[in-house]
Design brief:
binds 2-oxoglutaric acid; about 25% helix; alpha+beta; disordered N terminus; two-stranded antiparallel sheet
Length: about 325
């Protein structure tokens, strides 16, 4: 693990290396780590059976999205990454989108009570699901630029607007490209800057972060949930191992924010019919002065308030 340097210390109270988060089963420690370091590791969040079902489903889905030519692939970078939809095998990094449509096991992961408890600790009540995807990071994936997941905001926020959960579906270690963090950076009150990397002809070929950051790479076994405040600087590591790293990547957000995944539109009727009420609320089908649905497409708010579809009316 790299040490916490003066560069980090200038941006806030440095965290003593002995206080850095370690995998724990203690929810109070998880909350303390989230508050202090901006990330935490909940050990054994998933049972061995849940890990197996998740891994089997992800491996099959990734393979078949590749074979049918609809895989979302890249080289592993974040900004400047060449994303494409293509056959698998041409790039080491593969994203699997809209996982709620791709297996009931993912519904279980979204509704995990301990994850919802930790998320409520960060965001308060009423949060909704922001993103539900998976990452297949094969050997050869590049290191991601350091970034926070509130990057779309051009201003710092005093509280998190988004809270992330990464389920480790394989072991996470440095060689396999485990997620790295800049501990305590959620409290820096800064917006990260990026600059273009140009080739000889002046064409932008990559983006890089401005500044130096000392990072730590927590390691933990499959089944661990990595939770973080979205303001915490982090990134995927370089996978030099030849082994595939699998993760389910979830995020929850304040109910006032726009979701990455437009769940109300993208969930199939068949999957919708099989979802729990709690999951529907998490996906944004609830209404509590926010999130009204005019049911033009046959879907309504669930719960006590539902609105009729009213079109143009004439006398
Ligand atoms: O894959 C990882 O470890 C991190 C992914 C990430 O931060 C992202 O895609 O924004």
């Amino acid at each position: 693990m790299a040490s916490i340097s003066q560069a980090n210390a200038q941006n806030g109270t440095p965290i003593d290396p002995k206080d850095l988060p370690e995998p724990t089963r203690d929810m109070e420690r998880v909350k303390q780590d989230l508050a202090k370091s901006g990330y935490a590791l909940l050990r054994d969040a998933l049972t061995a059976d849940q890990v197996k079902r998740t891994r089997d489903r992800l491996e099959e889905q990734a393979e078949m999205e590749g074979k049918t030519g609809v895989a979302n692939i890249g080289d592993g970078r974040f900004l400047g990454r060449q994303w494409s939809v293509s056959a698998d095998g041409t790039e080491p990094w593969q994203g699997i989108r809209s996982i709620l449509n791709k297996g009931k096991i993912f519904h279980e992961l979204v509704e995990h009570p301990a994850i919802l408890e930790a998320t409520e600790y960060l965001l308060g009540p009423g949060f909704i699901l922001y993103n539900a995807s998976a990452i297949v990071m094969r050997g050869g994936s590049s290191r991601q630029q350091v970034h926070g997941d509130q990057i779309m905001f051009t201003f710092p926020t005093p509280v998190p607007l988004i809270a992330n959960t990464f389920y480790m579906v394989t072991d996470f270690d440095e060689a396999r490209g485990a997620t790295y963090f800049v501990p305590g950076s959620h409290r820096w009150n800064q917006v990260l800057e990026f600059e273009a990397v140009l080739d000889d002809s002046g064409k932008t070929v990559d983006m890089r972060e401005v500044g130096e950051f000392d990072c730590v790479t927590p390691e933990a076994p499959a089944g661990t949930a990595l939770l973080f405040d979205a303001r915490t600087l982090h990134g995927g590591g370089e996978n030099v191992s030849g082994e595939t790293r699998l993760a389910v990547s979830l995020a929850y957000c304040l109910p006032t924010l726009r979701q990455i995944d437009n769940f109300c539109m993208s969930i199939s009727d068949e999957v919708y019919a099989d979802m729990s009420e709690r999951l529907k609320l998490l996906c944004g089908f609830g209404f509590a002065y926010l999130g009204r649905i005019d049911p033009a497409l046959g879907r309504s708010n669930i719960g006590s308030v539902q609105f009729p579809w009213i079109g143009e009316l004439h006398r």
